[in-house]
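User: I'm writing a tutorial on reading structure tokens. Could you give me a worked example: one chain, its sequence, then its tokens, then a sentence or two explaining what the tokens reveal?
Assistant: Sure. Here is the example chain.
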Amino acid sequence: MIIIKEKISVLLIAFILIIPVFLSACAKNSSNVPPNEKIELSDKNGMKFYIQVTPCADNKNNGKITLDTDRKKLYLYSSDCGRTFEKIRDSKAVLNRLSEGSYSFCFMEKDFPETITDIYTVYAGDISNSCSISAIAVSSAEKISNDGTITICVKDQSGSEDYEATIDGWKTCISFSGKTVGFESLGQGVYSVSVRDKKNPVNVSHIMSVPVVHSEIGTSAYINVEPILQNPELPTGCEVTSLTMLLNHIGFDVDKLTLSDGYLPKGEYRKSDFNKVFVGNPRSRQAYGCTACVIAETAEKFLEEYDKDNKWQVKNITGCPAKIVYSAIKYGNPVIVWSSIDMEEIIENHVSWVDESTGNTVSWFGNEHCLLLTGYNTEENLVYVNDPLRGQISYDMKIFEKRFNELDRNAVIIINK
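And here are its predicted structure tokens:
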């Protein structure tokens, strides 16, 4: 299974995963089909390799894919989305006698499993079956920030600038102008990717089978983070206290009052929107709180001032399922999550008021609480948190996930770029 560890492995080259393989200049019965141009791929850690496709001819299984790597290092390649790997001998691997279709590869430096790349899917077509649009796609393995992503890039042959793209065989499609469009937060599976000219739908690309693979979280993971309690100074400051614990964990010396007084956006009690500001003041018991977007903004304001090396990045991963949150823990990133006090029942529409800036009515969830998630154990059905009210404590995993979902999966992480 593919594992993407952001500190070590990054996307290698955006918008280059699927190589167009039709060559209109070649004769149908030619037995000497020229290959496509060799595409160079590399990442900042020094991994370099090339992919080259020779398409099929005359409806025969004579397509070929060549994987050519940097000769300075020994690499392995996988043709089954990272489940098994084979050596690339003498810097090159050649797959022969291929029929028309999609073929997926990922790469790993030998003896360093954390360097596994995203999945590169190559479409090996038939030279006699040309298409009027060449589409390139990027399929990503699971990242911390979402379930999976497919980005489609048009290498235009139709002259159009307006396209439609699909990932499910035209059951649904999205329109876009220019050269690229992305599908985000995809579940694990194989997607049927294609592009067509919006003004002239007969101009289409090949239908490409693009896999999205999710990493396994394993049975348990834990990060030891020094706990900080919100009381007595911040009786309603669970959100900013959780952020304080996270910032201290990644190396910043900051206290909860500094963040609360100097960086947390605040609005008037029962007159503002908790999605935009903290409603009230954390120093007061007559206050409510805020959601992930406000804490992400607070973290960004702090890092703009103190992250001199531009080393850290705030990610609001609200909406991601619990598995992605656990995946962040596995990769060493504590997660600020929204749940309830002592995992008690959430009280929907506990109290409502009008946001004076917009005139919209907002409703607060009773028992709302923010914590720093630091670990999980699937065998024991537990999550481990730094609770601003209780300190280091564990809760039932299923109940936590229920509360997390009820509060719209609000979550924030800060990752090393």
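What the tokens reveal: The two ends are 23 Å apart (CA to CA). Residues 28 and 128 are 5 Å apart (CA to CA).
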